[in-house]
Structure formats: structure tokens, C-alpha cells
Amino acid sequence: MKKISLEKELREISYPGRGIVIGRSRDGKKAVAAYFIMGRSENSRNRVFVEEGEGIRTEAYDPSKLTDPSLIIYAPVRVLGNQTIVTNGDQTDTIYEGIRQGKSFSASLESREFEPDAPNYTPRISGIITLEKGAFSYEMSILKSSSGNPEECLRYTFSYDAPQPGEGRFIHTYQGDGNPLPSFEGEPKRVEIPDSCEEFASLLWESLNEDNKVSLFVRYLDLETGTYETKIVNKNQ
Fold first, then answer.
1. What are the residues whose beta carbons fall under 8 Å from the beta carbon of 83, sequence distance 6 or more?
2. N or C: which end of the chain has fewer CB within 10 A?
């Protein structure tokens, strides 16, 4: 698969929805995770990312305007030992509890499917980073309807056991705008990852559609020490 420009990709897709990027910094020293959310409705746009322990959660920027919390209030990022989980919904908790019980990443998601938001049936996208003695691996997953048919859930898991320096993968919920919104297709896209958390956060945030972007999370984890640097950007301040 040819490596693409993440900046160009985001600028050309009017509405990727929610997206996860996982990879390795160019200098090879850090595992990288990023997650962004976008919104078209007032309810979706009325959100911010806030830190919660080693992870983050979404919360309403203006609680008085919150109409339906069911699919927009959740913990996108949670940490369990040497593993960092990143998702676009409450399946973060499903993966967390599954792994605690000894299940694999993919097995933990067997009880879940796409979101019940007809007619879009938004895919559930998930990722997990596992640090191990100065190295790491990661997995990504998408649970989606079969061409908009809610009677069939398609389940795809992608595993990367030797991430290369300066390289990552990008998966998002929608191919672009539309009615209904068309689900992501294919395997996660191969993208470049810079060395700087600040630089990567700036590239992502500036590339997202100004009207629809809501919040962004970026984390760089040191492979030797396990320490990390986190950057959170919220349109609502």
C-alpha cells in the first residue's frame, strides 16, 4: 500500500467523522496514538475532551444543550497496564473489561457491532497499543454494517507486529459526507508520523474541516520508559 499524506487526505475528505491514527515516530523511539471527533449536529458539536486518569473522556461543553448522551459521551482512551485502548465509543470499556478477563482484542469486540444510528449505522473503530520491552505492536478494528444493511455486521481486525519508524495507519468512520453517511472501506491507510507530538497535533487539527471539527487527542509514548506526552485540542474552550 502506498503511503499517503495525512494532511492532504483530511483536507480532501469533507467529513471523515471520527478517526484513529496509530504508528511509530520517525526516530523510532515513540508509539503514537491520535483520535479526533467531528460533528454536524449541535448535539455532536457540544463536546470537549477532558483527561480522566491516564485516559480521556468526552463531556458536554454546555450541559444545558445536551439532548442525547447515548452515543457521544464515553471514554475514548483508557490504559490497562502496558496497553492503551483508543476507540470511537463505549466499546473502549468492552475491550478494557475483555482484556482484564484474558480475552484478546478481537474477541473482546465479538459482543459489539456498529452503532444503532439508522440510517448511517456508524462503524465502531478501535485500536490498541501494546508496549513490550522497548518495542510495541498494535491492532485496529472496524465493525460496520454490510453496505448499510443492519442485519449483518462485518468485522475486520488488522494487526501490526513490527511498526516501522515514521509510519502509521489511519482509519475513520466515513468515506465522506452524504445521506446516509457512507462507511469507511478497505484497510487502514498508510500514513507518515512525525517525531513531535505538538507538530502532529497541529497538522491534524489544521487539516480537519473548520466547521465540523470538535476535539483532538494525541499521545506519544516512550518505548523505553513508558512515559508519555499528551496533547488535547478542543474547539469549544
1. 99, 128, 129, 130, 131
2. C
Q: In whole angstroms, what is the distance from residue 113 CA to residue 208 CA?
A: 27
Please name the helix (run of DSSP H) or strand (run of DSSP E) that holds residue 149, with its range, or none: strand 149-160
Q: List the alpha helices (DSSP H) in the chain.
A: 6-12, 42-45, 91-100, 105-108, 197-207
pLDDT band for 70, please (50, 70, 90 cuts): confident
* Domain span at 18: 6-234
Contact status, residue 165 vs residue 25, Cβ threshold 8 Å = yes
What's the number of domains the chain is made of?
1
Single-letter amino acid code for the residue at 27: D
Amino acid in the structure at residue 234: N
CATH code at position 223: 3.60.20.20
pLDDT in tens, 9-49: 999 998 999 999 999 999 999 999 999 999 999 999 999 99
Q: Would you state the torsion angle of the CA atoms of residues 159, 161, 167, 173, taken in this order, to the nearest 10 degrees?
A: 20
pLDDT at 9: 95
Backbone φ and ψ for 137, nearest 5 degrees, come out as -135, 165
1, part of any domain: no
Output the pLDDT for position 148.
94
- Cα separation values, 51 from 54, 58, 212, 233, Å: 7, 9, 22, 12
Between CA 201 and CA 184 the distance in angstroms is 23
